[in-house]
Every structure is written in structure tokens, then in C-alpha cells.
Amino acid sequence: MSDHQPPHRELPETSSTTGNKGITRRGFLKGAGITAAGTALLDGVQSLQQEAQAATPKGVMEYGAEAFPVTLNINGKEHALHVETRTTLAEALRIGLGMTGTKISCDRGACSSCTVWLDKLPVNSCMTLAVDAIGHRVTTIEGLSTDSEVHPVQAAFVRHDAMQCGFCTPGMVMSCAALIERNPHPTERDVRVAISGNLCRCGTYPKVFAATLDAAGQHATKA
Amino acid sequence: MNSFSLADCTTVEAALSQLKNGAVVKAGGVDLLDRMKNGTDTPNRLVNIRNIRELRGIQSTPDGVTIGALTTLAEIADDPTIRAQYTILSDACGHAATPHIRNMATIGGNVLQELQCWYFRSAEFQCIRKGKEQCFAFSGLNQYHAIMDYGGCPSVAPSSSAVALLALNATIELTSAAKGKRKVAIQNFYVQPDANPHRFNVKADEELLTAIHIPKPAPGTRSAYQKYGEKESHDWAIADAGILLEMDGDICRRAVVTMGAASPVVRRSKEAEAVLTGKPITRDTARAAGKASMTGAMPLSMNGYKVQLFPIAIYRTILLAAGQMERDPSAAG
């Protein structure tokens, strides 16, 4: 969340989701995770971990620094994957599960392009560890529409052409849809506050306001 | 981020048992992950307290209110009791960072955030707060740095909520396995850089910040907080002001003026308070208090503008607290 950044340096990114032998976890899981053998492998590792649990004190769940299997509830379905403690929810979604609708831009909670819902609350998945999503319900842009219908906010974004390059759009839509879930009749001020963490480099904010108000059946007003 | 082991704890007792061998506490994780991604913090082990239910929630007591350390900024900002009786705190929590971060960030983590200084938060600069001799801000880029009380480190206090908690005379509850609970008044909680450049607060490594107690405000209390940044939303404060007025009819019986982003430790302006005490709140007294708040200001090479900005922030927030002015549309949040 550092908006104030020094002007003259770039740190090399350390990746927590690529292997060290040239095999990416994404590639590995895509190859192995969806087969029956892969699932059996996950189950085996999980029971090993449960045995290790017996030794830890009451009220403490122990996670080692190496990759371990978890099950995350995403868009109403249980997904098995491997993560490390340092894997963010955004990385788990994009790299671990191939759900690339959730974008990573700043990776510091400063732009909200990685917005997902954690139990209906919009949060930055780049600043949430994947282990903190265990036992919670994650909703991503992929889960907003049903098979037969797009979400009203998505439909309104299309009608109002509320995007330019589109990179911030999934995060914008998640923020605006969360607003309408908790406040079905928002004012333009409410929309402004709801997306006050979502950066749009192209500056398409006015169309986002109009689309969201339209989705809520409201007319654009200065409120 | 470096790799690390993690103890996910569900009780305070369990978490306290894990606070050893350099383990670092994680709650919402917003500030910690930021520092870990920057490479300035590389803990081998985290103690996750995010799932400790007993540390969550706001309880009214006969003496005031107790806020569990894991209560999120969004929960505090939306709480009806806090909004009505502790407006300065709901203002501060409701205007920190973004709605997304406020859903994740906890009050304990907000109070414990580390300093804002881009040299301190960069792994490439080893400064006096990291055990070296040099400060890069005095001769470097210091437009967001401190203007008062900085001694050898002109970083700024990052916590918006602390600006409110100082005005409200809050008490920080710290708990350890060996010594149980102890309470520290917020004015004694933060450490001035010259007193000890390597400590930001008095919390020991084996202690957990478990709760914040706020006494009930005196009858006739009105309060407000406003933050000014470069951007209209989601920005660090370049000046923020907390105002608490105990009114007796038209006369201000007691005033508290607190300032964030002015100094390494959130501060009260006794000079501004003295101007308001015993007088009616008017545009003239508010303006005079704002001006008095800059007594002793020593701006750096690039932040002289803050000496202009703070008096305006304080003037407008005094009038907001007194109900004589609307919330400033140019204030951030």
C-alpha cells in the first residue's frame, strides 16, 4: 500500500509460485492436479500433514515453509491445490488454479485490480495470504455470473462501455457488485467511495459510476 | 517474499506460546506483507492471530468502550456507538487507506504500523532506524517527511487511528505469557527516535496487543478527524488533524488537538489547545489555533508546504467538530 515510493529503484520480484527447477507450479498442477492420480497424491500428503498436527500445541495449526496441499472454497466449489505460506490468494488463484480473471497490478494493495470477495467483503487478494482463505468463501470475477446470465453490473459495464484497456475492470466490477449487494440503491457518492481503492489508469471512472448506478436501477445524479 | 513457517493460532494463549525465537505476529497482514514484499522484513516464522475470535469486536462498558485488537477499521468506522460518541475514531478509521484495506486491516495492526519513510521502507537504504549511522531523508527527497519533533529521524507516524486514539486518551492493553496483561496510555506507547532509534513503541516482542480501551468522553464532547493527501482517495496523509472539544454551552472547556504526519510520533499541540481553551469556537479562534499549531516547526528542504497545510487542516477540522463547517470536500478519504 505504498503510494509514496522512492523514485529511483526497482526491487527484483521473488516469486513464491514458481519451482526452482524450471517447473512452474502452475504447469505442474495443470499436468497433475486434475487427474485421479494427482488427487490421490494430494490426499496422501494431506494425511501426512494431519499426523504432524498431532504434535503441535492446542489452538495452533502448524504450516511449514514448504508447499502443502489446501482446499479453498472458490465460487461455491472446493478446489484442491498446493500453496506455500507465502503464496498470496491472488497467486493461488492465478497461478495455482489458472483463474486469471483476478488481476495483479501493484501487488501492494494500492490499486485493487486484484479485488475478490472474502465472505462477501471486497478485499485485496494480493495482500491476503492463501492460508487466510482456508475456511472462507472466496468469490472471484469468474464466479459472478451464472451459466445462463451475466451479473447486472457486468451487463451494465458492457452497455456503458465502462472500460478502456480493461485491466482494472475485474476489480472494478467486484467492488461495484459488492456495493450493490449491501446497498441496492447507491448514490453516485456511494459508488465513488466503493471504488476509491480501484485505480483506473485510463480514467474511465465516469462510465463506471454510470454503469453501476444503471445496474442498480438508479439514474446518474450528483449526490 | 521469503519463505517462512506459520503458526495459525485460534486462542490468545496459543499465540503467546508461539512468540519466541524471532517469530513475527501477523493479523490483517497489510503492513507486514508490504514490508516483506519490499524485502525489508524477512521473518522465518509468522504467528497468525487473524483467527482468534476473542480478539474481535467492540464492547461498551460503564467506563467507555473496549475494542478488540482484531476489529477491522471498517467495523469500527461503521459501528453506531463509535460514530455517535467517538466520532473522531470512526472518521479516522473510515478514511484510512481504501475500503478494501479497511475490510482487512485491524485496529491493532494500524496502531503498530511501522514508520512511513521511503528510505526506511526500502531494502536498499540502511538508515539509523536499522542500526546504521545515516539518515537519507535530511539531504534526500523529504517532501512527505516530518516538520516537528523529529530529532535524528524525520519519518512520520503512519497511523490515522492513533491520531484519534491520542485525542481520546486511549489505553493500549498488552498481554504476555509471563506477565499477563499490562496497560499503557497511548501517550506513552510510542518511542521518540532520539530516545531509542531501534524501537517504535514499548510493546515487547513476547507481548501481543490485545485490546484498546477508550474512556467515555465527558458530556458536551464533540470530535472530528480529517486527512489531507495528494490524492482525493487512498493516499497517505501529508497532514491529518484530530480535534476533540469539551463544550460548556458556547465555551470550549477543554480542547485536544492532535496531528499525524507532522512528526515520527503522533503528537498533541498544546499551543493550539491553549488558544481554544476557555473561549467560544469561532472562525477566528479556530484560525488562531491552527496558526499556533506550527509553533516550533522546522520544515526540511522539500516540505515547507506542510507549514501552510497543517493550520488549514486544523482550522477546518475544529469547525467540523464544532458543527460549524461541513466535512471538507478536498480532504482525502
Summarize the structure.
The complex is a heterodimer of chains A (223) and B (333). With 223 residues, chain A is of the alpha+beta class.
Largest interface in this structure: A-B, 48 and 52 residues
Distance between the termini of chain B: 29 Å
CATH architecture of the domain at 53-113 and 155-215 in chain B: 2-Layer Sandwich
Global structural class of chain B = alpha+beta
Cα gyration radius of chain A (Å): 19 Å
Strand content of chain A: 5-15%
Spatial strand sequence of the major β-sheet of chain B: 4-5-8-6-7
Fraction of residues in H or I helices of chain B: 25-40%
What is the terminal-to-terminal distance of chain A?
Answer: 29 Å
Q: What is the N-to-C succession of helices and strands of chain B?
A: EHEHEEEHHHHHHEEEEEEEHHH
Please give the number of β-strands of chain A: 6
Main pleated-sheet profile of chain A: 5 strands, mixed
Instruction: Please tally the helical runs of chain A, counting DSSP H or I stretches of 4 or more residues.
Output: 7
Describe the model.
- The complex is a heterodimer of chains A (223) and B (333).
- Chain A is an alpha+beta fold.
- Chain A contains seven helices and six strands; from the N terminus they run H-H-E-E-E-H-E-E-E-H-H-H-H.
- Chain A has helices at residues 25-32, 36-53, 89-96, 152-159, 169-182, 188-194, 205-215; strands spanning 60-63, 68-74, 77-83, 115-118, 121-124, 137-139.
- A five-stranded mixed beta sheet of chain A has the order 3-2-6-4-5, with helices on both faces.
- In chain A, a hairpin with a 2-residue loop joins strand 4 and strand 5.
- The model of chain A is unreliable at 6-45 (pLDDT under 50).
- Chain B is α+β, with helices and mostly antiparallel strands.
- In chain B, 27% of the residues lie in helices and 22% in strands.
- Chain B has helices spanning 12-18, 30-38, 73-78, 80-85, 87-94, 99-104, 107-112, 160-167, 270-276, 283-292, 305-321; strands at residues 5-9, 24-26, 45-48, 58-61, 64-68, 171-176, 180-185, 207-215, 221-228, 239-248, 251-260, 267-268.
- A five-stranded antiparallel beta sheet of chain B has the order 4-5-8-6-7.
- In chain B, a hairpin with a 3-residue loop joins strand 6 (171-176) and strand 7 (180-185).
- Chain B is globular and about 60 Å long.
- The chains are: A alpha+beta (223), B alpha+beta (333).
- Chains A and B meet through strand 1, strand 5 and helix 6 of A and strand 1, helix 1, helix 2 and helix 6 of B.
- Strand 1 of chain A pairs antiparallel with strand 1 of chain B.
